[in-house]
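EI: anyone free to look at a 42-residue chain?
SC: sure, send it
EI:
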Amino acid sequence: MGEVKDWMWLLTTAKGDFLISVAGEWTQEEAAQKLKYVLKYS
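SC: here you go
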């Protein structure tokens, strides 16, 4: 472990386009779950 990855998504929403970056020791699946959580509660 210890490898830091930087996952990026371009999200197109009704409010505009957002470039989301999730940096850290995540797998892509973990990063996606974190992103979903942030979107749900923001």
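EI: The helical segments are 28-40.
SC: 👍
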